[in-house]
Amino acid sequence: MESLTKELIQELLSADQAPCLSLYMPTHRTHPENLQDSIRFKNLTKQLEESLLLKYSAAEVKKQLEPFETLGNNETFWNHTSEGLAVFSANELFKVVGLKEPVDELAMVADSFHTKPLRKYLQSVDRYYLLGLSLNEFRLFEGNRHSLVQVEMADDSPKEIEEALVDESAEKHSNLASFGGHGSNKDEAGNEAEQFFRTVADHIYENYSKPTGWPLILAALPEHHSLFQKVNKNPLLLSESLSINPTSVSTDKLKTMAWEIMEPEYLLKLDRTVSKYEQAKANGKGSDDYKEVASAAVEGRIDTLIIEADRMIAVRITNLVTGNTQNKDLQNPKVDDLLDDMGELVAKMGGQVIVLPPEKMPSETGLAAIYRY
Fold first, then answer.
1. 325-339, pLDDT tens digit by residue?
2. Contacts for 135-141: CB closer than 8 Å, 24+ residues apart
C-alpha cells in the first residue's frame, strides 16, 4: 500500500492510457467490522466490470480486473487497512493507496483517473501536522477539523535518525535512549538535544511538510520550544504552539488544543480565497459558469480553481482546444466528473486547485475560477 503524496497525484494525472479505473471506499481497522471490507470491494469491482463491458470485450475486461480480483482475495491485506482506500489501475499501472479518513464509495471507469478525493485530502485548507517532541522521542500526527491520527513512520525513519545521531557522537552514545541527559555535563546534554531536534526537524520537513505543504504545530514542554525554533528550517512551522508534554494528554485532547491554533488559520485562508474570487469576478477575471471556466481551463488561463467537495457534474469536455462541453452519463467508460477533469487540467497547467466543503463555496454551481488574465 502506498502513501498519498503530491507526486503520486502527478503520476496519476500523467497517465494517458484508457481505460483508467478508479475505486474509492471506506475501510475499517479492527475486527469484526473489517470483515465486510473485502465484500464491499468486490461489489465495487463488479460496478467497474459493468461499466467496462459497455465498451470493451469480455477478454479485455477480464484482463483489466485481474489485479482487483487478486487484491479482493488477499486476506492479509484486508486485515491491515486503515480508514479509507483508493485503488487505481490502467495498463502497466496498479496503485493501492491507504487513507486515514473514510471516503465515499466510488467505482469509475474513464479516460483519466478520478483524483478529486485525493486532492481534497491533500490540499484541503484545514490540514496540518502536529509534532509531539521530547528530549529522546517524537511522534507525528496529521489532523484536520474532525480528526487527529498518529502517522505511521516508514520502517527506516527511526533508524535514519538514530544513525545520524550516533554518527554525531559515536564515542559517547549508541542509541536514541542516551538523549535523556546521560551526558557527562550540562553542555554535552544541550549539544545532544540540539542535534536530536535538528535531525527531527529536518526529517519532518523533507518527508512530510515539504511534500504536502501542510502547516506544522509543535507540542513540547516550554523549555524545549526555543531550542527547536533555533534549529528548525521548516517555513511551515506555525509561530503559535502547544506548551505541554505531548505524552501526558490523550489524542482527543491534543486534537482539541491543536484545532484552537489551526481554526483561525483555516478561516483566514478561506476568507482570503473567497475575497480574491469575488474581487476577480467583479473585475471580469473570474467566473462560476462551468462552460466559461472549461474554456479558460483548456487555454491555461486559470490561476485558482475552487471546486466543491463530493459534488459530481456529469459533463464532459469534448474539445481540448475550444473547451466545448456536453452532458454525458457517468456510467460511460470515457466520462469522468467535470470538476475532476477541470481540476486535472488546471493542475497540469500550473494552476492551484482548492477543494472546499459546500458551506464554504463562494458559488452555487460547484466551482469558481480566478483567471490569470
1. 777 665 666 556 889
2. 135/179, 135/180, 135/181, 135/193, 135/196, 135/224, 136/176, 136/177, 136/178, 136/179, 136/180, 136/196, 137/176, 138/200, 139/246, 139/247, 140/204, 140/208, 141/251, 141/254, 141/258
